[in-house]
Amino acid sequence: MEAFGGTWDGEILENAGAVSGVQPRWQFKLHADSFSAADLDRWAGPRARPSWLQRLLPAMLGGSSGQSAAPSDLLRLVDAEGEVNVDEFDLEKLKLKQVRAQGFAA
Fold this sequence. Notes:
With 106 residues, the chain is α/β, with parallel strands linked by helices. It has helices spanning 37-44, 52-60, 71-75; strands at residues 2-3, 6-14, 26-32, 35-36, 80-91, 94-105.
């Protein structure tokens, strides 16, 4: 997949042992050859299309897309953990190589 200035591969898995009625726990392991913070900002930051996240996340999390919630409230519903490896990360005038990040959200 191509996104945020690079080519991505890896996996995102739903934990089959999730308890019914509780948000599923997602696990991810992703790799990108390149990642641009400017591209991410255009997609999800203040320059993004208004309310795209409010329309997208409720449907992904099993709710109604007509729900009205702040993006930060919707992101709190995500229950995931994993790692992201990026060969080259561009952050304005900084260019970082071989970046590895582990993340947990619950």
